[in-house]
Amino acid sequence: MAEICQKGPSPVAGRKKGIGKMNWYLDVNENSDVVKSTKIKLSRNLSEFKFNLKNQEDIERLENKVKENLYSIGYGLKLLKLRDMDEITKTSLVEKGLISSTFALKRYGSILINDEENICIMIGGEEHIELQVYGAGLDLENVLNLAIEIDEKIGETLGYAVSKKYGYLTSTLNNIGTGLKVSVNVHLPALTKTRNTRKVFDAIGDFGINIKEVYKGKGDIYQISNKQTLGISEKEIVKNLKVIVQTLIEQERQARKLLAQDEIALSDLIYRSYGILANCRKISNEETRELLSNVKLGVDLGLLDELTDLKVQELYLYSKPANLQKKLGKKYDKQELDIKRAEVIRKIIANGDGA
User: Fold this and answer.
1) Nearby residues of 349 by Cβ (< 8 Å), 6 or more positions away
2) Span 285-310, pLDDT tens digits
3) Alpha carbon distance 181, 42 (integer Å)
4) How far is residue 120's CA from residue 80's CA, in Å, rounded to a whole number?
5) In the 3-class helix/strand/coil scheme, how is the chain assigned residue by residue?
6) d(CA 78, CA 113)
7) 268, part of any domain
8) For 6, what's the count of Cα atoms within 13 Å in the CB-facing half-sphere?
């Protein structure tokens, strides 16, 4: 019987080295076998503007203020206005997690974004500025440090609304204080298959965190985030959340060992999923997510050698409706999209990027 090679905390194999900078959503990092991504979000308002801007004139004045100071802020950020984007482009940003679905529905507003897309700042949404920094895998400290560095530069340049008593002032009480929301997306297929997610979530649910299933019953991906923003420092929030995530990592890896005791059944599930993806002629986004969860598990356990981590990340990205259409440069109806999705999936598996 072949030995199960479960990946540990070191960076995952299959990463392209020395080939420029990679977008975070195609990259892998420490603990990427369980943790898909890390996100730090800081909510801020500028002192010279009223909160919760609604009309076009006020939002444009905010945009102009930011645009005038882009060079001083730095980081290769470019300002893109929502009203200049088509619906597929906006939805593709939502699919990547770069903007919220609520923000995408706004007629006015803009984003600051860099080429690597690990920095994306929403302008004129729920708050004046919603600074977001991303990283692959579990990369909380590095992502937080970069977010704080950018935040301090923007604060010095534009001037935040701050209270000595309450900290950063925001439109909603949920953000007041640090204005910090830490989110970590975790892939928990083994806990799901062994029906232990509820037990584990109940055990950690008293530690001031939110747990949300990202794709409603398909894909085994959950978002872990902090509830508290007031009366606690940014580094304490990150430290507390990291402890919770590390517990989830340990529990998921233990569940994978349990599943691997029946290697034939597990390999059969993984290769059936791979076989459908490699040969399908029509497939929905929902079915793709479910099959990819099994395939990623197989790659992470060393049971599936036919795919690299990079190909798995590409499959996740380009199977999503808007990013698939952006890649192909054409708009499709749902039936056509399911056919095109199957084509791109087969090409990525065979060639690397579906081009």
Assistant:
1) 277, 278, 306, 307, 311, 315
2) 999 999 999 999 999 999 999 999 99
3) 7
4) 11
5) CCCCCCCCCCCCCCCCCCCCCCCHHHCCCCCCCCEEEEEEEEEECECCCCCCCCCHHHHHHHHHHHHHCHHHHCCCCEEEEHHHCCHHHHHHHHHHCCCCHHHHCCCCCEEEECCCCCEEEEECCCCCEEEEEEEECCCHHHHHHHHHHHHHHHHHHHCECEECCCEECCCCCCCCECCEEEEEEEECHHHHHCCCHHHHHHHHCCCCEEEEECCCCCCCEEEEEECCCCCCCHHHHHHHHHHHHHHHHHHHHHHHHHHHCCHHHHHHHHHHHHHHHHHCCCCCHHHHHHHHHHHHHHHHCCCCCCCCHHHHHHHHHHCCHHHHHHHHCCCCCHHHHHHHHHHHHHHHHHHCCCC
6) 5
7) yes
8) 18
For 127-138, letters b (16+ CB in 10 Å) and e give: bbbbbbbbbbbb
212: its two tokens: 């949300």
In a domain, 6, yes or no: no
Separation CA 140–CA 38 (nearest Å): 6
User: Pick from 24, 46, 51: which is nearest to 35 by CA?
Assistant: 24
pTM of the model: 0.91
Q: Is the distance from CB of 112 to CB of 19 less than 8 angstroms? A: no
Amino acid (1-letter code) at residue 250: E
Domain assignment present for residue 246? The answer is: no
Residue 336: φ, ψ to 5°:
-65, -35
Which residue range(s) make up the domain with 337? 263-351
Inside any domain, residue 8: no
- pLDDT tens digit sequence for 140-193: 999 999 999 999 999 999 999 999 888 999 988 888 899 999 999 999 999 999
